[in-house]
Amino acid sequence: MVTNDATILHIKHQVLYEVAKMAWEGRLEEERDELPYRMIPGPQAQFRCCIYKEREIIKQRIRLAEGQCPVGRDSVNVVQVINAACEECPIASYTVTDNCRKCMGKACQNSCNFGAITMGDTRAYIDPGKCRECGKCAQACPYSAIAHLERPCKKVCPVDAITYDEYGICKIDEKKCIQCGACIHSCPFGAIGTKTFMVDLIRLILAGKKVVAMVAPATEGQFGPDITMASWKTALKRTGFADMVEVGLGGDMTAASEAEEWAEAYKEGKKMTTSCCPAFVNMIKQHYPELLDHMSTTVSPMCGVSRWLKQQDPETITVFIGPCIAKKSESLDLNITGNADYVLTYGEIRAMMKAKGVELEPEENSYQESSVFGKRFGNGGGVTSAVVQCFKEMGEDINPEVMKCSGGAECKKALLLLKAGRLPADFIEGMVCAGGCVGGPSKHKTEMEAKKARDTLIGQADGRNVHENLKKVGADQVPMHRH
Questions:
Q1: What is the pLDDT of residue 71?
Q2: Of 382, 434, 409, 435, which is closest to residue 283 (Cα–Cα)?
Q3: Confidence of residue 470 (pLDDT cuts 50, 70, 90)
Q4: Which pLDDT does position 1 carry in this prediction?
Q5: pLDDT tens across 255-278, in order?
Q6: Sign, CA torsion 476/371/276/216
Q7: Per mean pLDDT, which range of 1-5, 193-197, 265-269 is the poorest?
């Protein structure tokens, strides 16, 4: 479930816009503390119990917009809980409904091993302090009167990284969290957010640094058939970026490198996984470290393009723009040299643009820097298609069986099979977001909404193959392995 509540989105984007505008105009330090009062003038509350809670939520969102933790604690996790907003969900996971007949058999009470169930005047009662959420009472009730109320953030987390403290406030276990961002847009109270790098980037641009944007292949189609990569290039230059490169080129670079790895592994009978999805990489590192030897050592398309740009000018500051939250954690990984310096979501870059009075405008689809295969890297199955294309260009007669995983649950299943030595496929394409990058947590439109426009835009690209394209732009000599 993804919440599309207009109030949550309005508050989130209004804070981003206001912070970006103050940063562009050099007013952030002086006026930061005034923003909660400007947005929530009172005396009537707009969306919570009182204006004081509303202002505290705005205050914590401002800290996130500046790249800080909401309440000042030290944490490297980019996904953070906005404590002031996380106070409305029911604490108890199991609750007794009006279906309860307070029957004589007391099946629910008899099934509980923790003494959590007592009989009230009209129905049974579950003590949340004693309940261990085993579910035996719900299974035992003959009237199906006990409901399992799983919080949406916990429900969507693919790695069980979300728990709650004694006050019912969401807690993220950073040792488990793969920073996929699924929880952010599932919360109907907007109580989970992510740190942004907007303010740092604005200050770098104002300081005259060479800041180059790298736009994800999943971008095409997100804003309709008239908003092309050329549209983005023009808008980003007007915003203050020195230049823009489409990361579909990085898809070509990754596919060519991964094809070499896969070909070698295929001949040895070794099974491998992809490594371009940072949430999938985090899942392997944190939950299946014994499988690291099976993971491709090729860097992501984002890293490939960043290395290419820095190879040309080491002073270049690279910024990835796309629908991915986990990319932020990847950019902070100091073990990967030459990676993107910063990452922005669509909402964050559009706030920066809006604050400068810049809009995306229709433009001819004339800017093409990647092959069609690189452009489709953001689709589920796109990595496999690009690698198979590279096999053909390399003259390799390989037709591998690939388990294409769409979503966290499918990724976990494939990794468990690989761990148990029962994986039926030769390779695993792991995409933690359903549908691939186009289904990322910060997407502008759903995959199906964007599909028609995306297919149209990609179909207008020329038919060059992957290796030809890399040679054409001079990206065929970039080192593409992690170490």
A1: 86
A2: 409
A3: very high
A4: 40
A5: 999 999 999 999 999 999 999 999
A6: positive
A7: 1-5
Evaluate if residue 5 carries a pLDDT over 80.
no
- Residue 329 C-beta-side C-alpha neighbours within 13 Å: 24
**HSE-up of 154 (CA within 13 Å, CB side)?**
17
Query: CA-to-CA distance for 17 and 35, rounded, in angstroms?
Result: 11
CA distances to 174, 258, 467 from 309, rounded to whole Å, are 32, 20, 18
Bridge partners (DSSP) of residue 171 are 163
The DSSP code for 290 is: G
Q: How far apart are CA 301 and CA 274, in angstroms?
A: 12
| Contact between 338 and 290 (Cβ < 8 Å) | no
Mean pLDDT of the 94-115 span: 93
User: 26 to each of 195, 199, 206, 240, how far by Cα in Å?
Assistant: 20, 10, 10, 15
Helices (H), 85-223: 107-111, 136-140, 152-156, 198-206
DSSP H helical ranges for 69-188: 107-111, 136-140, 152-156
* Residue of 396, 397, 394, 390 whose CA lies nearest to 256: 390
Q: How far apart are CA 335 and CA 289, in angstroms?
A: 16
pTM for this structure? Answer: 0.91
